[in-house]
TrEMBL record:
Residues 55-95 form a coiled coil. This is Type IV pilus assembly protein PilO. InterPro entries: PilO, Transl_elong_EF1B/ribsomal_bS6. It comes from the Bacteria.
Length: 209
């Protein structure tokens, strides 16, 4: 095959008279170009209709694989930290149990008031009254306020306040009022004290039943 001859035949062709039925007589270069074009279109069509969906499925599978891998790594890290988390939960449960033990139940309120009265008497204070108010129910606890009024000198009153704060049961002190009481150095202390009773969540009570 003479390449220059084939190129000259390709240039001298009348493109308007090409007939597919006479393709066997076309110049070799034209036949070669047509074969390459047909082959390229065939391969492109095969890729579009056959390989394209498979490639998309492969990419989707790779994304799913990466998601599952990340999920596995996250769960593996959680599993590795599980003993430490259980230890922390157990420690928090113990601390909560200790705090709950410091909260008096309803039947223990009279005993707590007796302890406050003894603290006042130990500090040589005279007790005007220790009077319970109506309890206030909150979500996880019941607030039990009571009014206290005692009389004595400044240092003994201060020692009484410290003694109430040091009681085994939790007692918070609010609304202090200190006024002279008669002659001498006697003072009158009025204050609101509060203690608290633990209220288990409603679902815990139902589970216990």
């Amino acid at each position: 095959m003479n390449l220059s001859t084939e190129l000259r035949r390709l240039r001298d062709m009348d493109w308007g008279e090409l007939d597919i039925k006479e393709s066997g007589g076309w110049p070799f270069l034209l036949q070669l170009i047509c074969c390459v074009l047909v082959l390229g279109l065939t391969l492109a069509g095969m890729y579009w209709y056959l390989a394209g969906p498979k490639v998309e499925e492969l990419e989707q599978a790779q994304r799913e694989e990466q998601r599952l891998l990340n999920d596995y790594r996250s769960k593996a890290a959680q599993a590795a930290n599980l003993p430490a988390l259980r230890e922390q939960v157990e420690e928090l449960d113990n601390r909560l149990s200790g705090l709950v033990a410091m909260l008096p139940g309803g039947p223990e309120i009279p005993s707590l008031i007796d302890d406050i009265s003894e603290t006042a008497l130990d500090n040589q204070l005279s007790i005007d009254f220790i009077r319970l108010r109506s309890p206030a129910t909150q979500e996880f606890y019941t607030e039990r306020p009571f009014d206290i009024r005692v009389q004595g000198d400044y240092h003994r009153i201060a020692s009484f306040i410290a003694g109430v704060a040091d009681l085994p049961r939790i007692v918070t002190q609010h609304d202090f009022s200190l006024e002279p009481a008669g002659d001498g150095n006697r003072l009158q202390l009025s204050m609101l004290a509060k203690t608290y009773s633990y209220r288990p969540p409603a679902n815990a009570e139902e589970g216990a039943q």
